[in-house]
Amino acid sequence: MTHMALKQCAAIAAAVLGSIVVTTAAAQSWPARPVRIIVPFPPGGGLDFFARVTAPKLQEQLGQQMVVENRSGAGGMIGADAVAKAPPDGYTVLFSSSAELTISQHLYPKIAYDTAKDFAPVSYIVHAAMLFSVHPSIPAKSLKEVIALARARPGQLNYASAGTGGVQHLAGELLKTAAKIDIVHVPYKGAGPAVVDMVGGQVSMGFTALPSSIQHARSGRLRPIAVTGAKRSEAAPDLPTFTELGFPTIDLVVWYGVLFPARTPPEIVSRMSTEVIRAVQSPDIKAKLLQQGVEVVGTTPEQFAKFMQTEIVRYGKIIQETGAKPD
Predict the structure, then answer these.
(1) What is the mean pLDDT of residues 136-160?
(2) Beta-bridge partner residues of 256
(3) 179, 206, 227: which is the final residue of a domain?
(4) What is the CATH number of the domain that holds 176?
(5) How many separate helices (H) and strands (E) can be counted in the chain?
(6) pTM for this one?
(7) Strand, helix or coil at 121?
């Protein structure tokens, strides 16, 4: 090897080593400035509630401001894409639902990001059952009566969801298939707007994550019928599950995860995973979450990555079976 070639190799090695040193130093000092938490849905929904309850605790633990920013639109895909394209430096993080990570790719021919390649999973952190409720003007007080009414009025009743391609949408399509009823899907740009119209009587019924609707059910502004999930919710223990009522396929839950852009230093990913799990397991935050029907899970980044792949397959089958389509 010539003297010039040796000098070039040495220069390249020094540059690589320098890059590693800088990256490691940045990861060790993280966070050194405020962190943006992107919520890809409007205020008032379950994911927004979760982010705003958790952010102050993370701020306390990490010693830096956690700024919650709602970037809604396209069923959560606009906010998710913004994070996928953000610098992988640990200062932009996605608080996501299952919709934009594992469902949208089955409904749309092309989306702007790849769940497996464009994100660094941090943790599958919590999940919540969905509440199926009707407006009090609907003359039905049980699931059996709702189904009978829908069969008597085919195509005349409608149901709200937080948006096309969300778990709420798929739960409605599963109900249509399992109960053999014809109800019309009305998608909204998030659970907050959907609940507003449900309470106002603009839509007959709907599936919503418990945090976004449980207070309205408790006050009588909505009539609760049943919850999804494998077991009854601690936030609504008197409500039966769909499985108890003879509809075991309607067992979906809304789950929330935390992700960084791909190529974020693993030291930062690991630190955030530890801190966000610590935050939701703290007694005060855990109590607030449980009161609204949100249950803590908390996984490692590796477990979350595997879980998402399983969910992608699962929702692909559900969409194929129900024939769900973008509205």
Answers:
(1) 97
(2) 97, 126
(3) 227
(4) 3.40.190.10
(5) 13, 10
(6) 0.85
(7) strand
